[in-house]
Write a structure and sequence with these properties.
The complex is a heterodimer. In chain A, a hairpin with a 2-residue loop joins β4 (175-178) and β5. Chain A has 10 helices and 10 strands. Chain A is 42% helix and 18% strand. Chain A is α/β, with parallel strands linked by helices. Chain A is globular. By secondary structure, chain B is of the alpha/beta class. Chain B has 6 helices and 9 strands, in the order βαβαββββαβαβαβα. In chain B, the strands form 2 sheets. In chain B, strands 3-4-2-1-7-8-9 form a 7-stranded parallel β-sheet, with helices on both faces. Chain B has a two-stranded antiparallel ribbon with strand order 5-6. In chain B, β8 (145-149), α5 and β9 form a beta-alpha-beta unit. The radius of gyration of chain B is 15 Å and the shape is globular. The chains are: A alpha/beta, B alpha/beta. Chains A and B meet through α1 and α2 of A and β5, β6 and α3 of B.
Chain lengths: 282, 191
């Protein structure tokens, strides 16, 4: 009985947020979304999700402030170093054959993984003919990503990750430290375009050779995953690469059929959907 | 009809040995089992081998959107929280560690308690931190069955002891009693 009320509350708050703010949480995976809502209820010392809905509807500044708790996952540079090592050794050689390399980092959050990719491209001599489109649903988070300043306390683990991923230089070459923060080199930002994009509502905006979207799909229900994976297939060149998070897969989503395993253990796939593909036939 | 719908197990230091002992004795259970075993993120493991290739239970890593089946044990992947949806599928998350743990036992137990209520059996084993205590409380409050490994004979008593202090526990069992006890629960029939 109590459980049923909870689910109604989640339905209602998602609908409310969508109608008032345009962020669509209606197809987020229910269990993790509910958990995040409950954490927010506790943080704000409220009584219930219904109470949270009232606060959110009537106080936009609270919503803006707390939105990251519903959308952001904390990342790190070169997270899952073997993934980045594989990008370097198995994906870069193909990207190198293109005159211009276009990469879409979907759900870039605070940017750590985007800058990791920029470092790889720089070390491989490809940065100047690349563009990385780094998108996220939340403009405040994009601002943090654009700044490229991370806590100095993170540098040790970033450095270890970088080294494990096959980094060729000293990681300290890529940032300057001061005031408790590590500021990444402006050089790394030159080829990155940060912009808002909502995977639940927005469509294709660029055709790229590599899409990276890590630990985002798990927060979506199957229906939204289908929308997004289909969008990715339409946003990639034929045989373009898609990189997911360490424990994600395309196995349960119908649009997964547009992709084949490339390095299965690292969740790197290749698009086999041609743009004139008749997918009515599926 | 068996009144139980799922079994969730939480284990930390000393857990691999404990789980191995338990699964070796299990029959094919009429419900899915989910296990959080605290382990280093990035580890790649053959779970069946790690847990001794038990004869009557298939052991796989839990995957996002996977449908839970009876008789199978799903292990929470390293570095991810594992949750359960109302429709009996798995949900993963990389939200912040809880009690320094990801996967967290509390996250699994709380999620399972919400979905299965009185149909849930929750078992907490050996471990060095307090992950799982809040989860056991949630299970109890939703009418589930709470089982704890006897701290006196656990490899590391901290985790089961913390749960006993925090919340009513229905049974405290020695390691080699757990398997047979679960098999008994598997045979319970209610009209």
């Amino acid at each position: 009985m109590v459980k049923r009320v909870d689910d109604i509350e989640v339905d209602l708050i998602a609908e409310a947020i969508y109608q008032v703010y345009g962020y669509d949480f209606r197809h987020y995976a229910r269990a993790s979304f509910k958990r995040r809502l409950r954490t927010l209820v506790q943080d704000l010392k409220l009584d219930s999700i219904s109470h949270l809905q009232a606060v959110i509807l009537h106080r936009p500044e609270v919503f803006a402030d707390k939105l990251p708790q519903l959308t952001v996952t904390v990342s790190e540079m070169f997270r899952d170093p073997s993934f980045f090592a594989t990008i370097r050794s198995q994906v870069i050689p193909t990207l190198r054959t293109y005159p211009t390399i276009k990469i879409w980092h979907a759900g870039c959050s605070t940017g750590e993984e985007v800058y990791s990719l920029a470092i790889i491209l720089l070390e491989e001599g490809l940065l100047d003919r690349s563009v990385i489109y780094a998108t996220d649903i939340n403009p405040n988070v994009l601002k943090v990503a654009r700044d490229g300043i991370y806590p100095i306390t993170e540098i040790k683990s970033f450095t270890a990750n970088y080294q494990k991923s096959g980094g060729k230089e000293a990681f300290s070459d890529y940032y300057t430290a001061g005031y408790g923060g590590a500021r990444l080199l402006p050089r790394l930002k030159e080829r990155i375009v940060f912009s808002e994009h909502n995977l639940a509502t927005d469509d294709v905006f660029v055709e790229s050779q590599l899409i990276i979207c890590r630990n985002v799909l798990i927060y979506f229900d199957l229906e939204l995953q289908q929308r997004v994976v289909d969008l990715f297939a339409r946003s990639l060149t034929y045989k373009g690469f898609l990189g997911l998070g360490a424990k994600e897969s395309l196995r349960y989503v119908p649009a997964g059929r547009f992709f084949t395993d490339y390095v299965g253990s690292e969740k790197i796939y290749r698009n086999i959907r041609r743009h004139e593909f008749d997918y009515e036939s599926l | 009809m068996n009144p139980y719908k799922a079994l969730v197990i939480g284990a930390s230091a000393g857990g691999v040995h404990a789980v191995r002992t338990i699964v070796a004795q299990l029959v094919t259970l009429p419900w899915p089992t989910l296990l959080v075993q605290h382990i280093q993120a990035g580890a790649r493991i053959d779970y069946a081998a790690a847990f001794g290739s038990p004869p009557h239970i298939r052991i796989v890593e839990a995957e996002d959107k996977m449908l839970l089946e009876a008789g199978v044990m799903y292990v929470a992947p390293p570095g991810y929280h594992t949750l359960i949806e109302e429709d009996g599928t798995v949900g993963l998350s990389v939200d912040a560690p809880l009690n320094f743990s990801r996967p967290s036992i509390d996250v699994l137990f709380e999620s399972a308690a919400e979905v299965y209520g009185a149909g849930l059996i929750a078992l907490l084993l050996t471990g060095a931190n307090h992950d799982g205590s809040a989860g056991m409380e949630a299970v109890y409050q939703r009418g589930g069955l709470t089982l704890v490994q006897d701290p006196g004979s656990a490899e590391v008593p901290t985790m089961p002891a913390a749960a006993i202090v925090r919340t009513p526990v229905h049974h405290i069992l020695k390691l080699d009693e757990i398997g047979p006890f679960l098999n008994q629960l598997a045979r319970v029939q209610v009209p």
